[in-house]
Amino acid sequence: MVGNDIVDIAQAKKDSNWQRPRFLDKLFTEKEKEFILKSEDKFIALWQLWSMKEAAYKLYTQLNPSRFYAPKQFECFVNASIWKVNYKDFTCYVSTKITTDYIISEARLVQHKITSEVLVFKNEDLKIQGQILRDKLSKTIGKRRHIQTKTIEFQKSEFGVPTAHFNSKKINVSLTHHGRFGAFAY
Amino acid sequence: MTNDELIAKLKGIIAPYIQEEAAFTNLNEDTDFVKDLKINSANLVDIILDIEDEFDIRLENDDMEKMLDVKSAMAIVNAKLED
Lengths: 186, 83
Fold this sequence. Notes:
The complex is a heterodimer. Chain A is of the alpha+beta class.
């Protein structure tokens, strides 16, 4: 089981003003704020932590079907370069990859390397992006499991948690898109 | 403030962040910020800050947790204004 989240760096620059009053206070704990503010690139550090929280939330809601907005309570911790995110008694490992264009995080219950496949969209339409992402994920699952792509169906629960269905099997998947980028993992 | 006035104010606050015009045009109490309006979760905090500024209130963590649809936003603002 995995939760993932991608941040398009250019899009985040355009959409959010992190320096507006109370912005950091609403999303980050004191320790996280300290990490952000002492980082050489505060902007990247902020979105790195944000994507970790989002990835962890997406994993948490697969295990605990629910829907809420509590980014500050998903607390990021680092120890010897290994990141973990805690929420109440839930804890997970998070791996992050930062490029010049995007930041991607992946949360799992065990230590892991990033497996998310990243796509670059040419079309800005969200519906088309979602379709492209699901099509690519179908192809990947089909190839690995030796099943026909068209037999794979995607569903979203009332809490927005996505699953892939095939041969009366159900697997948890994680899809993310932001700006020009999308990614999936399972 | 009537419910219609409150919805109109919220609509103005939400407008810059929506990614789905049709759902925004038909905005009502049941409209979901993420599912219907496709608002990016990183922008939900901007909506929360804008609501705080507009109504001169402060939202706590418990309030933020529920800020996923118009109905919850209305309930939270109304409760704060009554305090």
